[in-house]
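Dear support,

I submitted the protein below through the web form. The confirmation email said the job was done, but the results page showed an empty box. After a refresh the structure appeared. I'm attaching both so you can tell me whether what I see now is the final result or a partial one.
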Amino acid sequence: RQGSGTEGASSEDYEVRIPFRTFQKEFGTRWRDVSVRAKVAPGVAIADAKDEIRGITRVVRKLDAKEEDDFTLNEQETLRATIQPIKNAIYGIGLGLTALALLVGGIGVMNIMFVTVKERTREIGIRKAVGARRRTIMGQFLIEAVLICLVGGLIGVLISIPISMLIKAVLPAYLDSTVVMIAFGICVLIGTIFGLAPAWTAAKSHPIEALRYE
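What the results page shows now:
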């Protein structure tokens, strides 16, 4: 099943869990850096559990009473406190770059639609002269703006597939279908917001003035 690790930084989809004795039998002492996770039973104090784990680990590693620990004990909350600021910074930078990209893309779509409206002024005038309503013309240009954004989103998804496959070769990653659907939803939203002004400009144009446009 899909899930995240106890530290929230890794995926359980890429983990294999075996008994420690089996690990020792198969790998022996070749692996010196071993991470062991322990879950504290309900009602047991964290400090008591750490003392017990420390004592067992010292016995396993055959440390004398005078020797210092050659291992470390980390609580899950400590690891989260260390990782969370880094994750927040990455998310913040990613969110800022995404917002900037959406703004630039939306302005680009709006400019394209304004040019389209200007080039089709005479067509708009003819349609209004034969009875086309404002909302019909406005809806047409809004749909065109949304379609431009959807095509851009589709191109982005197609580009992201090989990139995610390359990343997957190094780090655990997969392309979530939910994320893709959200991306297309954002494309529709951006197309609607930035297509409103050009669509309204087209809808409110006077038919006589539009027919005179060369």
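Response: this is the final, complete result; the empty box was a page-load delay. DSSP finds seven helices and no strands in the chain.
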